[in-house]
Design a protein that fits this description.
By secondary structure, this protein is mostly helical. It has six helices and three strands, in the order H-E-E-E-H-H-H-H-H. Helix 1 runs antiparallel to helix 2 and helix 1 packs across helix 3. About 12% of the residues have low confidence.
């Protein structure tokens, strides 16, 4: 039936899109990690410069770190109480306009505050990118779910397609399929929309 054929084609296209997205996301996250690690390195360099230029240097109490998540770059700040290894995480719940407010960083010198503000202005761009990447990820997963493509993807990954599965797989529409599309009636359209969970 035309509805099933079109639905199968949709499932394949969304799964292709999902596979391509994984590769593209990997490249994007690698670049974002390079930028984020550079921001951390610059912050540490500012600290070293302050340490060597100020004879009354006071130990900086905050340090940023970044790590790669599944589909975003995770940015964290930690506060050190003294010269030992003990530190406490700085709560990120106060992020506003993609930046941590300077009021979250207590006990800083003026130079440290300046370095934190600069780092946060740069981290804000990474957080903004994170938000949009997560939205894309969520939307594309929803597209696959709407047409029931997740079961197909899980079945096909890592397995050879059997002869019985080949009827489900359509690589390119042939002439016969195109003629079906030309005769796609209003009733077919309504049936198709019901099949994928969209109101007629």
């Amino acid at each position: 039936m035309i509805v099933d054929r079109c639905l199968n084609m949709l499932i394949q296209e969304f799964n292709r899109l999902d596979a391509a997205r994984s590769d593209e996301f990997d490249a994007i996250l690698r670049y974002m990690m390079v930028i984020s690690e550079n921001i951390v390195d610059e912050f540490k360099q500012y600290r070293e410069d302050d340490k060597h230029s100020d004879s009354r240097f006071r130990f900086w109490t905050h340090v940023p770190s970044v790590e790669r998540g599944a589909s975003s770059v995770v940015i964290r700040w930690r506060k050190y109480q003294g010269r030992g290894r003990r530190s406490d995480p700085v709560a990120t719940s106060a992020v506003k306009d993609y930046k941590m407010p300077i009021s979250q960083f207590h006990g800083c010198t003026r130079v440290e505050k300046k370095a934190i503000v600069l780092a946060e202005s740069r981290f804000s761009q990474i957080r903004r990118l994170n938000e949009h990447l997560l939205a894309i990820n969520k939307a594309q997963n929803a597209l696959v779910d709407v047409v029931g493509g997740r079961d197909v993807r899980e079945r096909d990954y890592g397995q050879e397609v059997t002869k019985s599965d080949q009827s489900f797989m359509i690589n390119e529409p042939d002439i016969e399929q195109l003629s079906y599309l030309e005769n796609f009636s209003e009733a077919d359209r309504i049936a198709f929309r019901k099949k994928i969970g969209v109101s007629p």
